[in-house]
Amino acid sequence: MQIEKYKIAEHNDRLLSAHKRSFDYIASGVQNLQDLLQKLRDFQIAIPSWALGTGGTRFGRFSGGGEPGNLEEKLEDIGLLHQLNQSSGAVSLHIPWDIPKNAGAIKALAAQFGLRFDAMNSNTFQDQPDQQHSYKFGSMQHVDKAVRQQAIEHNIEVIKYGVELGSESLTVWLSDGSSFPGQLNLRRAHQRTLESLQEVYAALPENWKVFVEYKAYEPNFYSTTVGDWGQSFLFASKLGPKAYTLVDLGHHLPNANIEQIVALLLNEGKLGGFHFNDSKYGDDDLTVGSINPYQLFLIFNELVEGMDARGMNHANDLGWMIDASHNVKDPLEDLLQSVEAIMIAYAQALLVDTKALAEAQQQSDVARAQEILQAAYRTDVRPLVAEARLQAGGALQPLELYRQLGVRSHLIKERGQKTVATGL
Ligand code: AFD
Ligand code: MN
Ligand code: MN
Description:
It is a single chain. By secondary structure, the protein is an alpha/beta fold. It has one domain: TIM Barrel (Alpha-Beta Barrel). It contains 15 helices and 12 strands. The chain has helices spanning 5-27, 33-42, 71-85, 103-112, 145-165, 186-202, 229-239, 258-267, 293-309, 331-351, 354-362, 366-377, 382-391, 398-404, 407-415, and strands spanning 46-48, 56-57, 60-61, 90-94, 116-121, 169-173, 177-178, 209-213, 223-224, 243-248, 271-276, 319-322. An 8-stranded parallel β-sheet has the order 1-4-5-6-8-10-11-12. Strands 2-3 form a two-stranded antiparallel ribbon. Helix 3 (71-85) crosses helix 10 (331-351). The site of one manganese (II) ion has 5 residues, from loops.
């Protein structure tokens, strides 16, 4: 399904005068308004191909209906999101859940929806039916060279798919680790993982990057071989200039200061990409901004400050991706909410009076520094985000229009109630 343009236009016309009132109110106080709106328009967030279906937990999964049954339908869903918000113009593909059988046709279809291919994701955390060796005890860290070789070759295959689609990066998330003390020689596991990653690194095309994603625990519960940003940074540094750390917001131990991690990685030129989600307890994969939007703002504040200090382009120089699971909401509604939350945090960070903040910091004026940050955070920037969307041809209220058009019931009619998307 695609949304006819006139329906978006009708929706916008209906909301326009109310929008203009709130936009004018906030816009009058914004310096560099055009520049800010352009930055918001340029900012695109990749949707992961595994997030279009209903997620689940190890206790069960309650499917939603009208889920995309193949990669073509997943692209169609992302196309719908992008039509509505004009900020989801990229897809992050997972292999082997979404193998592009005919890369040329898939690339053309994506282009038709205005989508490009962001980072490719490999999978050595599950066994596939036709697979020779098992990843039960790890992949790149495995004691058996044949298992490591299989994991290396899989990653190289993922790069090949990515090249055909025009992607320029590979995200490696390893579930490698151990569940009990003594199970693994920790030092050797690290060394073997490094050697395996080096072989993948050697296969990267010139213009490619590899992102090493870390995660504190799960599925392993005693040690994780890429368990925190320090370990990821170590791998990325040893691998070379094309290797970077990827920060997934849900992959930290409770109360970690993620904004500080981001600041330091950026300063070292080793921050490569992001997986957005929110969490209360662990790798909860909840809707971005649903639990702790202030933390998201503080992270964006460091991102904007750090990227500006290095002369980086906000939209293109890091990989921005969502990594979430939608267990009780319509995945498309959830993704619209996530993208909106990201855009809001980004817009708020762009409003921070950086000059005044630097002065307050220089004078160790703690109260003033807090006031400056919170002045930006407490600004209702939704009309700015909506205006950027309007200018780009999107809908003023994407979620409202999605519901009004009955998109989900159309999808159920087209695809049936019982379709199940590939993924976890
Ligand atoms: C993991 C990671 C990772 C991976 C995903 C698979 O966050 O990015 O690709 O789950 O669903 O927890
Ligand atoms: Mn992730
Ligand atoms: Mn995760």
